[in-house]
């Protein structure tokens, strides 16, 4: 054990396993650890550092705003907050009637969405429909929306009214009625292993929720900010939801979340009905506005689509018998494995200096910065091919070429 491992084992809460390395510095798609090892980061802090590490735009925005104004309170508005709200409304197509609530994380954005659903539903509509295998966060409300029994069990009872359905149009048709306040879905279930919704699901959910007077809330926390090769996951489907939740990539590494509402859903929160001391502070909103400006100016949504297609081709071209499918869109990719060895593949990759993660035992998740280019892809190919070969060599006879 090194000193930092001792410190981490003693001082950090035991909600996560042993830390893999002590990361001391980042630049672009690379991280360096305390032993001076360089890592190619194809996880981006789980779809967070959209511009890569220490991007000049990010650094300038943090420095400039920290030197100007970092926090007031929600008694006041600030220019960065208004600029970001207007930008998010424009990018998300929320129109003049749209509104933005700022939080500090994804789970908090979903807490706000949960309360939005309750405000809409009142006592007449106690039901909220979410999806099996869905993940929406770890706070009590967002955990109630999250399906995974093992995550929920120690914390029961959950806030009531949430039902989890299989992700099929038929299941939604069968379950929805006029007592449903909201349907909440991820366009691609990231934590479940980068699993896309079935073709036409969002369109069907839109028409069913309209028919029954329920809100359609899309959790874009992992899929938003250009990651899937469109600004948002729902943009691929051409629908207009009632609300979306955002976090992760919009801040590019600065903690921030948001709930964007559309149309009538924008009138549900009234003074005093919700709030957060830090939510919408000028520092976080200035950084997110700068990150989104850079994503727009540098064409990074288009880059995510193009590099995502190249990455997919690379993965299929590796020809490893361990790879059975490549799921996802843009730069949110799940590599489905023939054996439940995602943990081993991730460890082998880490040994070779490549960071990816195991979304579940059968799936390696890849979510690099939206800025990646030829050099990063070429290095990824080399390292990931080697990592797969390492694991395959340790599985004699199990998976043959
Ligand atoms: C789809 C989705 N919703 C919500 C969350 C929770 O976000 P946070 O970890 O910022 O609370 C996550 C995080 O992984 C997520 O992927």
Describe, in plain words, how this protein is organized in 3D:
The protein is an alpha/beta fold and 401 residues long. It has two domains: 3-13 and 20-55 and 299-394, Aspartate Aminotransferase, domain 1; 57-298, Aspartate Aminotransferase, domain 2 (3-Layer(aba) Sandwich), CATH 3.40.640.10. Helices cover 37% and strands 18% of the residues. A seven-stranded mixed β-sheet has the order 4-12-11-10-7-5-6, sandwiched between helices. The chain has a four-stranded mixed β-sheet with strand order 1-2-3-15. The longest helix is centred in the C-terminal third of the chain and has 20 residues, at 374-393. The radius of gyration is 21 Å and the shape is globular. The protein starts with a helix and ends in an 8-residue tail after the last helix. The site of pyridoxal-5'-phosphate has 15 residues, from helix 5. The modification N6-(pyridoxal phosphate)lysine is found at residue 248. Its EC number is 2.6.1.11.
